[in-house]
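Re: export button greyed out
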Amino acid sequence: GAGVSQSPSNKVTEKGKDVELRCDPISGHTALYWYRQSLGQGLEFLIYFQGNSAPDKSGLPSDRFSAERTGGSVSTLTIQRTQQEDSAVYLCASSLYGTRQGNQPQHFGDGTRLSIL
Amino acid sequence: AQTVTQSQPEMSVQEAETVTLSCTYDTSENNYYLFWYKQPPSRQMILVIRQEAYKQQNATENRFSVNFQKAAKSFSLKISDSQLGDTAMYFCAFVLHSGGGADGLTFGKGTHLIIQP
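Workaround output, generated via the alternate export path:
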């Protein structure tokens, strides 16, 4: 597609439920990133994929968070047993190759607003 | 670890005026990239301008320019002839160039810029 696509746009769920957020990067982009944006914490980097591989998962807030990427394209961020502090906007970005390797800017999607009741 | 500081939570100027948003960062590394992103109420992060640390010349993009002072670790954004459509949150961001580790951007807390008619 023309840009990074994220779904759903908004998600409201009850505390304790699992949620799955989806990101479809720009076609041909090898690098994919997840960020979380909340009022208290600002923008936090969560995880980065180069192809299907995530070299460093230390940015994920807890073991309830996991992410995968298949076929070098679509990525899903899964939050298990959601808590109220998980409420935030989750942003996905992609770049042609890693930003650090080639000064490729990250292009962002519109985000998923997650609300935990 | 790298940090990015934006000391102006909110700024307001009249349309057509020039405004400067400040950003300072802290790193012990010598090679890195700096970015300014704009986030309007639509939520999408839009790249405004970028700067490679090894370049002494300040980057410019139409009405947007930066004042990059590497020794002072300062990276301010100047918007000339401001327009109503410039109203948005502006985020300064940093990433190291090459080497190991994650590829994610480190963001400042943002400056809410309001352009008054």
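Chain B touches chain A through 27 residues (CB under 8 Å). The button fix ships in the next patch.
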